[in-house]
């Protein structure tokens, strides 16, 4: 994924904007709700947004032209009388905002009980067919899902626990309750399950034993096997290859003929990942036979394998029964997947189909019938069509000239385009009746500079001969008015020939599938490629999934809509579009105030719309402060604190609220806010230190006569060392540069390292690490705790850390594991644990660990010199509150050994002539001092001129 430029200084200045960019990830080409969001009168009525007459076109005609929405799909709000889109989540959000605002109901308006929120055409279609449909259904219905979707009407059945789902077209569906989804199983390898199989599985009838079952798979990696002729019906056996550098889960295929044990190849990686655990943990053995022999010497060989052993559950320890069943389920699912994705498919095509199948299997409840049909039909397309679609989707686009599309692995491009167009996956200039303005300009951009100049030469008006392509496009567009625009379109299309693009419907669905599969916006299909090429190796863990991250479709749609607001906010900040930024703040403000925070009490609130709006609001606070709109910033901060009572950002919000109140001259209120914040259990680390220092500064007599209990602790003097340096630059706003002892240019940290390495400094060895070395040590020592089997923290096999790492839930759910590791560290076994974990996991991606920055020798020296007690206290601190304490550690970590093989360590925060110690850094230094560490501040200053 391409990283966006950060050249605009305003973007990097705003607090919270960087995390907003990471949250958005890959920007979407098309935002389906953009116009409706920006034209909603609820948001536009906010005091933050003042729209002048004629500045915005909010006509109903414009709203009716929204993608996927027609005028008949709108309903009238019974409270304010405005038109609202017909989806339930939009109606509910709009109603909450209206009722919160206190709008009075007109006498001519209906009450909420009288009002029908479904568009009339949909209601009539359902009512005319629902009775007949209902009578045709039997009464022996299983548990039924009571969640609502935006195209389904619920009717009571004869049983109080059952419900009948009637679609718009009159067809009926029975939905199974999500309580049995995945049966608490461990999901790692996806497979496509038919609707019948899915309903059986959800009823608890999952296969959880592979004994006696024949599994079809292949022998791969034959180029790594021993040369020899293969024969059909040859018997084979299997053995583990844990020393394999490419894959520690590797399973070798051996010939069982005459006991020669010749290596024929390997089991596919996806299947070996689960079979290896059955072999290692439960001692299962497998045998098999070759089904056929391909012509190519290195081609995959079809085989069948089976396990004759039957392990009674009574012989397995209680905790391992679930693991055994889950591994068996994963083996069977992987085998089914291999049947759908034969080895003849291209790797990127196989990965894409795997992604679709996994999402359809695990989260079918968030898709409508038409959406599932579109996704499932993709798996039935020809190989050429699938490959072409994937190629186009992963390119920038969105429009492509057919004459420029050529891929060696696609045999017939024209037939592939026709099939994709017929299925609704792509649209072309030939099938599109009228190109919208944006689409036409993008098609125009497909022309090269020579073609543009040729078209400009046909115009008699004078035009500049600028070499820039965009200047030529602007000149061409300005030469044709609205009346002659159709003529220009005809000329352009004659030049470009047929052009195609991914259809908006398919683009939206695949974006959603990627988001559901990776659970973030930063990863995409390239993650598969990095694994296949061996560039990234993800850690081994079990995905124990018991709950959906989105319980129903409405939650997902609200989440996606919030992401749209976040993307508009990001784009507006990048373009310095202040009016649009204020609109995004107003939208987020209204949604935060109107939406309930029911999902925010869970350990992972990041998958709720409210949480995303709070991220937008956080950037908005910084924007308002930069604009000196402190009253608006104060109101927004108060709403954040009111609506998010259990959020780790409360410390920063409280600090900014107190600061902004002081800017407004409301010092007493500022002091009260700071004092109240100190009693908040979610105010921690640097934010707490900063609030304590504010209370001491603002709370002097006569405002406060009583001295706070923390006064002596916060006023403690941190030891300082002063180092003289010859400056290279003294400009304010630039990083200080000095000449080092060797005469070379260096920063203040390198100069400090040179000082401590000398006689005057004490002959210390050290590194400029800041938080990096500490997080690396923490990640390596706590590896078993980080990747322990905890439910719902690993949702995909592309994670480098659990979802709960930055929450209190991380320590609470692994307390026994973490404390047992801390006891070993306390007893002086840290160096041994470090070596073992390094050798086992070196090179495996982990969020905390940087394998390349520090050598094992350095880390061993650090662990040895720090000592077990201090190291255990640091690891416990990070485990209990990783988010608050994972930044702001001292710049330098120094160590030295004594003649008796003992060692000691020192932590140093380095500051240049114009730098000061931040509150987060002060919090760390005070903690280290309390833990018995040797910690100090080193100030580098130029020599004083007499």
TrEMBL record:
Which coenzyme or cofactor does it need?
Mg(2+); Mn(2+)
Indicate the segments forming the UBZ4-type domain, all copies: 74-103
Alphabetical keyword list: DNA damage, DNA repair, Hydrolase, Magnesium, Manganese, Metal-binding, Nuclease, Nucleus, Zinc, Zinc-finger
Please give the chief subcellular localization of this protein: nucleus
Catalysed transformations (reactions): Hydrolytically removes 5'-nucleotides successively from the 3'-hydroxy termini of 3'-hydroxy-terminated oligonucleotides
Role, per record: Nuclease required for the repair of DNA interstrand cross-links (ICL). Acts as a 5'-3' exonuclease that anchors at a cut end of DNA and cleaves DNA successively at every third nucleotide, allowing to excise an ICL from one strand through flanking incisions.
Q: What is this protein called?
A: Fanconi-associated nuclease
Q: What's the source species for this entry?
A: Lactuca virosa
Lineage of origin: Eukaryota, Viridiplantae, Streptophyta, Embryophyta, Tracheophyta
